[in-house]
């Protein structure tokens, strides 16, 4: 049986995460994906999840850019992470059936997203060792991203933070306003402008 659309996308993502030696979904698991994931389109500027909302789905981003952001003490928000094509959004929250978002997820571009009802994902979480491994690997990756980001904020200069994003997440500059990138790396737009001038002069 040839892989269908969502199964093929998930397999591509496993390869992108370099987990193909650790995770190989069975035919039954693939059928479960096909039967329980549904696609939809999210327009630029619209929210996938809003703060304090009860999270009802497990999401997979096929294409586009999503911004995970948290409110700050000044009434604004902090850009914690940007997700691009072929990404799982929230598998490690599935253990908590009453999980309410303390964050918002906003579309920076038009996006194509897949969703599975949380109770269906929760069933798979309890029955599939492969799905459990995926959630654990995703959590580890997210924690490493957070640690590296906080190390950058506390230990790097504005120039160093900018260079790091330019090297590791260059795709952001094509789709995300510079003021949001500045917020993401924890510097002012003015400091970002100075860093850009130093590098490109």
Assembly of the depicted chains: single chain
Structural class: alpha+beta
Number of helices: 8
Mean pLDDT across the residues is 87
Strands of the largest sheet, in order across it? 1-8-3-6
CA-to-CA gap between the ends?
55 Å
Biggest sheet character:
4 strands, antiparallel
Order of helices and strands: HHEEEEEEEEHHHHHH
Describe this structure in words.
- The protein has 201 residues and is α+β, with helices and mostly antiparallel strands.
- It has two domains: 140 residues, Jelly Rolls; 46 residues.
- It has eight helices and eight strands.
- The strands form two sheets. A four-stranded antiparallel beta sheet has the order 1-8-3-6. The protein has a four-stranded antiparallel beta sheet with strand order 2-7-4-5.
- Strand 4 and strand 5 form a beta hairpin.
- Helix 3 packs across helix 4 and helix 5 crosses helix 8.
- The mean pLDDT is 87.
Structure at a glance:
This protein is an alpha+beta fold and 201 residues long. The protein has helices at 5-16, 27-36, 118-127, 129-155, 158-168, 172-175, 178-185, 189-200; strands at 38-42, 47-49, 57-63, 66-71, 77-83, 87-88, 104-107, 111-117. It folds into two domains: 5-144, Jelly Rolls, CATH 2.60.120.10; 156-201.
């Amino acid at each position: 049986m040839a892989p269908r659309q969502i199964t093929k996308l998930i397999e591509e993502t496993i390869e992108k995460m370099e987990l193909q030696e650790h995770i190989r979904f069975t035919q039954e698991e693939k059928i479960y994906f096909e039967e329980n994931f549904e696609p939809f389109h999210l327009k630029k500027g619209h929210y996938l999840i809003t703060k304090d909302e009860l999270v009802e789905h497990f999401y997979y981003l096929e294409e586009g850019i999503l911004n995970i952001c948290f409110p700050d003490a000044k009434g604004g928000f902090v850009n914690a992470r940007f997700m691009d094509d072929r990404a799982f959004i929230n598998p490690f929250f599935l253990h908590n059936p009453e999980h309410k978002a303390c964050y918002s997820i906003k579309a920076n571009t038009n996006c194509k997203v897949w969703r599975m009802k949380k109770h269906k994902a929760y069933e798979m979480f309890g029955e599939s060792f492969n799905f459990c491994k995926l959630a654990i690997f995703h959590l580890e990756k997210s924690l490493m991203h957070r640690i590296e980001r906080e190390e950058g904020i506390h230990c790097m200069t504005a120039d160093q933070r900018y260079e790091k994003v330019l090297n590791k997440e260059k795709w952001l500059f094509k789709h995300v306003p510079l003021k949001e990138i500045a917020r993401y790396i924890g510097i002012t737009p003015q400091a970002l402008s100075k860093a850009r001038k130093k590098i490109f002069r």
